[in-house]
Write a structure and sequence with these properties.
Chain A is mainly α. In chain A, 70% of the residues lie in helices and 0% in strands. By secondary structure, chain B is mainly α. The chains are: A mainly alpha, B mainly alpha.
Chain lengths: 315, 291
């Protein structure tokens, strides 16, 4: 049944202001941006600015505050708990990021080998990253339990220690325990992203190096690392950013204890602002994190620039 | 050393199995054990009766002698857990759809309409991606309170897009960039409007990108913790992560069985979703970083 459509007279286009506006990509572009921009301004840009303001007031929960200038920062500068949290944050970030990078890169290299069931292995490796952090932290909480820790039990059975380790009761034990949990959670992200980077390296480079008699170590040092360096910069910036602002793991496993020895700046600001009700002081602690974050973002920015330049892209 | 997509054997045949075992399989196996053990431990604790859980002398802690569902039934019928799960689903689905809608429009406008200043807006959105929730939650709490959204699902549905939109927009911009301009030009010549082009050409072609963004956004909102902890106070409005660690601990009494059951059952939905879309998930994760 092929019925030809009768030619219909096309009505002349009304070129009102409205239709012309919809033909302008600038106007249309602005319209398309409205939902995203509205949400981001109201719930991202405005709170960011409000945070700066709150940090300079003595606002309490349920009451308006007044402007007190830098008084919050002055009192924080004399607060030993605050400085302890700064130390903890830096310690946590540096150790966890360094180990995450080392294990992540190693795992990426292993996954880049020819393996059976490769995609399944890769899917399993990502699990710690997919599962809600708080829920896996609960598992770590139980692993670190002072009476029923499976690690202590295994070590005792192996005859290596005689008493159960007090993982979360001793300041340094607690610090290393949360670092280990953070490493566990962060390795998959580093490994899978670096693996994606490794897969873009042309195998012919390795073949050429092989013919020239390069050893494994030399190939790694002179091909893999330089080719991977742009993506390493980006991944590590993200990793540092996420570790530095971490909240969930600490809050779940230790709540900052014992005696504040695992408080990060984020958990301390939560404790002061929400639990303690001093919104102004908490906001000041959050603001103190910003210089570090800006440093990390600048690092990422220059990393990206370098990668574009290396790939011969625009900019 | 060869890459995944490359079918050439390379020089692998020169390596004997024992050597490869020591160099690759053994370390890989150890790392996998490290990565999987907490899940195993969670599962074992979920199905272990209390008598076995707290007695390592009589029972080997690595095995379950008498599996039981008591922790799971306790969790589902004696706590608010079903409500938490319902809240988590509602919040994740709504915030994912809001973010996808806003991001598709924004990414299309930035990448294809190229209105005045679109590049700067794109950069600003990327910077928004780098603002972590742990410096936003205090002022956001004040705003949420002011708007009267405190202690309700809407507080989370409206605030989660702040970290979802920048991510999804950035990801979709990358996808839209891969679609040839010529297709759109043809449609424009044929008289299609921009909206038609977006709905009938760009979106269908970038479906993998939209799915990646959606899956990633869904798991991110399912996992979110700090906003949910700050903005929600009554038990029946909590999400799974918050409910599990605030309601299942009575003072010094830890209900380890129920906690582990909550951890396991709260993880299973994201793991199932993830296992169906693992390729999309990986491309979302690596794509966002490679940009």
């Amino acid at each position: 049944m092929a019925v030809m459509a009768e030619p219909v007279a096309v009505p002349a286009r009304r070129s009102s202001l409205w239709t012309r506006a919809f033909e302008s990509r600038h106007f249309l572009g602005a319209m398309f941006m409205v939902p995203a921009v509205a949400i981001l301004i109201l719930f991202l840009a405005y709170p960011l600015a409000l945070g700066f303001w709150l940090g300079m007031t003595d606002t309490k929960i349920g009451g308006a505050g007044r402007f007190i200038g830098f008084q919050n920062f002055v009192s924080l500068a004399k607060d030993s708990v605050f400085w302890l949290s700064v130390f903890n944050t830096i310690f946590y970030t540096v150790t966890a990021s360094a180990v995450k990078f080392a294990i992540g890169l190693y795992l990426a290299l292993l996954l880049n080998e020819r393996l059976p069931f490769k995609s399944m292995i890769r899917a399993i490796v990502l699990l710690p990253f997919v599962v809600p952090t708080v829920l896996s932290a609960i598992a770590f909480w139980w692993i670190y339990d002072s009476q029923f820790s499976i690690i202590s039990w295994v070590l005792i059975k192996a005859g290596l220690i005689t008493r159960y380790i007090d993982f979360l009761g001793d300041p340094w034990n607690a610090r290393w325990s949360v670092v280990a949990a953070n490493i566990w959670r962060g390795v998959p992200f580093v490994a899978i992203t670096l693996l994606a980077g490794l897969q873009t390296i042309s195998p012919s480079l390795y073949e050429a190096a092989n013919l020239d008699g390069a050893t494994n170590m030399q190939r790694f040092r002179h091909i893999t690392l330089p080719m991977l360096s742009p993506i390493i910069a980006v991944v590590m910036t993200f990793s540092v950013l996420m570790t530095f602002t971490d909240f969930q793991l600490i809050y779940t496993i230790t709540r900052g204890g014992p005696i504040n020895s695992t408080h990060l700046m984020a958990t301390l600001s939560f404790q002061r602002a929400i639990t303690g009700g001093n919104l102004g002081e908490g906001a000041a602690i959050s603001n103190a994190m910003i210089p570090f974050l800006v440093a990390a973002i600048l690092l990422s920015f220059f990393g990206l620039q370098r990668s574009r330049w290396q790939q011969g892209g625009r900019d | 050393m060869s890459t995944a997509d490359d079918q050439s054997v390379g020089m692998d045949y020169l390596e004997s199995f024992p050597r490869k075992f020591l160099r690759v399989y053994l370390p890989l196996g150890l790392i996998m054990v490290f990565l999987l053990f907490p899940f195993y431990w969670m599962t074992v604790a979920t199905f272990k009766p209390d008598a076995e859980m707290y007695d390592y002398e009589k029972y080997n802690p690595f095995w379950i002698v008498h599996p039981t569902f008591e922790h799971i039934t306790k969790l589902f019928f004696e706590t608010d857990y079903p409500l938490w799960m319902w809240n988590t689903v509602i919040v994740s689905v709504c915030s994912t759809f809001i973010s996808l809608f806003a991001s598709v429009c924004a990414a299309y406008a930035i990448e294809r309409l190229r209105y005045k200043g679109s590049r700067y807006v794109g950069l600003a959105i990327f910077l928004g991606y780098l603002v972590p929730p742990s410096i936003l939650f205090i002022p956001l709490a004040a705003i949420v309170f002011q708007l009267g959204l405190f202690d309700g699902n809407l507080a989370l549905i409206l605030t989660y897009p702040t970290f979802l939109i920048p991510f999804c927009t950035w990801l979709l911009m990358g996808y839209f960039r891969t679609i040839p301009y010529e297709l759109e030009e043809c449609a424009l010549i044929d008289g299609a409007t921009r909206l038609q082009i977006l709905m009938k050409i760009t979106l269908p072609l970038s479906l993998p990108g939209v799915i990646s963004a959606g899956i990633f956004a869904f798991t991110l909102s399912w996992n979110e913790f700090i906003y949910a902890l700050t903005f929600i106070s009554s038990s029946e409005n909590k999400t799974i992560p918050v409910g599990a660690i605030t309601e299942l601990v009575n003072g010094d009494v830890y209900h380890w069985g129920a906690l582990m059951a909550a951890a396991l059952t709260g993880s299973v939905p994201v793991v199932i979703l993830y296992s169906f879309f693992v390729e999309y998930y990986v491309s979302a994760m690596t794509g966002a970083v490679k940009e």
